[in-house]
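Whether sequence alone determines local backbone shape is best considered at the level of individual chains. In the encoding step, the backbone of a single protein was reduced to a row of integers, each denoting a local shape. For completeness, the protein is quoted in full, as a sequence line and a line of structure tokens.
***
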Amino acid sequence: MADRVVLLDAAGRPCGSADRIAVHDAETPYHLAFSSYLFDASGRLLLTRRGLGKATWPGVWTNSCCGHPRPGESPVDAVRRRVGEELGDRPSDLRLVLPSFGYRAVDASGIVEHELCPVWVGRIDPARLNPDPAEVMDVAWVDWAAVLRTASDTPQLLSPWAVLQIPLLDAALDPGEGVA
């Protein structure tokens, strides 16, 4: 299947599809994506550093994995597929935490990200990671408190979507249940 994204109208309803590579430019239309935040058994978050060949925010630290559901693909299946492709293992215990998160950001190159980007959390085993170097140039396992401080105190170190998502994710999680 071609790597297509689901285009959305202003209300966030599907209204077509387009080639993923061709759609990301200076006038990127609103489309469906997702972000995932994956934790190990001790509650550390997997941060990834985007590969230098990425069209937007190359070399920037971000959440565990992002991607786009393909037309007709369920959101949870899209997360599992993309995490498998990018990180070499499938996540477990996935759950949707921020279903209506959306953002628009412009990369230094002028490429626009304009996405309805639901946020998922789950688990992944550090021993089973095998990141695709074209996608991920580095990984780090970070305590949640340090992630919160980084997003607050030095947001320039993270992708713009992660900076926006992290405090919302923190507020959405039940303190009694832990981070993931």
